[in-house]
Design a protein that fits this description.
This protein is of the alpha+beta class. The chain contains two helices and 24 strands.
Length: about 270
């Protein structure tokens, strides 16, 4: 009897976590470059009371087992591309493919993002630095900060699909800048760890990042003047939320039923 209480309780805790994940997806439906997550579950240990066996053409063909509930095993991020939305800004970029922008994050640690809504900040020597909205420097393919001379007219900045930058001078002549906006891919992008502020950190499970420009037949390209919207589908998340809510309710009902049965057993008289 007590087993049912704990088993149903594990189901309620798992669905509470599921609702937490769904709520985070819904909260970020308008976050640039956000990738939705999904909670995955696994069943817990089983108590085996009788095993299947065959003996002299007879025996028991099936096991007698009972499980002890469920637990959250992982959260998996869906890296499908979001819809590109045209902004018209020369400093907005969307990646079509599996790439990530490289950012010099807090404490000098290189981090990665799909949010290409970049800005300009002015350095002490008057140079223009390409940064994120939080002021973190955007890195080029060599891992260096991207700085523009004061005379560069940003409205004339042009970036190729692989991130090569150029601008037009006052006479309309295209001047290459010999600098490429960094865009990397990972052997296992699903191991990237979200750290907030639209940033990801790599680890030993992601493998080493590789610049897209070093990959033959790379499938990731950069679109200037666009931003990638979140890939959250509100209707899908609402359906998942309803299913999770119902699963939570039936687990609570199982606890209530178990409690009623315990009360009946407790009230038995000889």
């Amino acid at each position: 009897m007590m087993r049912a209480l704990y088993t149903a309780g594990s189901g309620m805790k798992a669905q509470q976590f599921n609702v937490d994940v769904i709520s985070n997806n819904l909260a970020n439906v308008n976050t640039t470059g956000y990738k939705k997550e999904k909670a995955e579950f696994k069943d817990l240990l089983y108590q085996t009371m009788d095993r299947a066996y065959v003996l002299n053409d007879a025996g028991k063909p099936v096991n007698l087992q009972v499980g002890h509930g469920t637990v959250v095993s992982s959260t998996v991020r869906n890296f499908d591309n979001g819809t590109p939305e045209q902004t018209g800004s020369n400093l907005d970029f969307a990646i079509d493919g599996e790439g990530f922008f490289t950012i010099m994050g807090p404490q000098g640690i290189v981090q990665y993002t799909r949010d290409g809504s970049f800005k300009l900040s002015i350095t002490e020597d008057g140079m223009k630095r390409l940064t994120t909205s939080d002021g973190y420097a955007v890195l080029d393919s060599s891992g260096e900060e991207i700085l523009f001379d004061p005379e560069v007219n940003i409205s004339e900045l042009s970036v190729s699909p692989l991130g090569e930058m150029s601008y037009k001078d006052a006479e309309g002549v295209s001047i290459p800048m010999d600098q490429t906006i960094g865009m990397v891919i990972f052997p296992n992008k699903y191991a990237l760890e979200a750290v907030g502020n639209n940033l990801y950190s790599s680890n030993s499970a992601t493998g080493e990042p590789v610049q897209v420009t070093e990959v033959e037949n790379a499938k990731s390209i950069m679109k200037q003047g666009f931003l990638e919207s979140s890939n959250v589908q509100v209707v899908d998340e609402m359906v998942k939320l309803i299913v999770a809510q119902r699963a939570y309710e039936v687990s609570s009902k199982a606890i209530q039923s178990s409690d009623d049965m315990l009360q009946i057993a407790n009230n038995l008289r000889r």
